[in-house]
Amino acid sequence: AQKITQTQPGMFVQEKEAVTLDCTYDTSDQSYGLFWYKQPSSGEMIFLIYQGSYDEQNATEGRYSLNFQKARKSANLVISASQLGDSAMYFCAMREGEGYQKVTFGIGTKLQVIP
Amino acid sequence: SAVISQKPSRDICQRGTSLTIQCQVDSQVTMMFWYRQQPGQSLTLIATANQGSEATYESGFVIDKFPISRPNLTFSTLTVSNMSPEDSSIYLCSAQSGYGGELFFGEGSRLTVL
Prior knowledge:
The complex is a heterodimer of chains A (115) and B (114).
Chain A: E1 4-5, E2 10-14, E3 19-21, E4 24-25, E5 32-39, E6 46-52, E7 60-61, E8 64-69, E9 74-79, E10 88-96, E11 103-105, E12 109-114
Parallel strand pairs in A: 2-12
Antiparallel strand pairs in A: 1-4, 3-9, 5-6, 5-10, 7-8, 8-9, 10-11, 10-12
Chain B: E1 4-7, E2 10-13, E3 19-25, E4 32-37, E5 43-49, E6 56-57, E7 68-72, E8 75-80, E9 89-96, E10 103-105, E11 109-113
Parallel strand pairs in B: 2-11
Antiparallel strand pairs in B: 1-3, 3-8, 4-5, 4-9, 5-6, 7-8, 9-10, 9-11
């Protein structure tokens, strides 16, 4: 079974609007961490936001927030007030267990922001 | 956060040759990882580079094809051996920022094998 599932291969959003990128995960561990990364066309991987499995509140970082629904095993990324520079690939990822375990990535969602 | 430098940033290689990618971190890190990203695909973990011991390889990746060195806490190399066109990918070095922390990535090395 896929550890990380991203079902939206591509998404469009109007500039200044909000957009939600979906991510579901599969793990039997009680302790895990969820990450979102952005990869622009230049290729670098940019860390955006992190949510720990024991975190009570949804993580937020500026215009990024993570809608964490533990029972549904979903960790959707919400980008508010989209900007043209947000056009990129977005990857959801998970670390199972604690500490220095490996991180597994989903297949990504390509977001295009329309002026 | 760690700053990771990778080189070469890109290269064009001939079939059957080998290429070594270097990864330098600006601070000591416990864990370093090597990922492959094939064209239009996600990131796949090749191996965990362990300092002072042999790397831990993921299923489908073997030491003879992807030998890895990690001589200290700031440096690692990945060699892609006996390359074929199927090895054309972006190879990404990453380091973990701390216990349970996020991964930081180098700029990637884009290899094209002819």
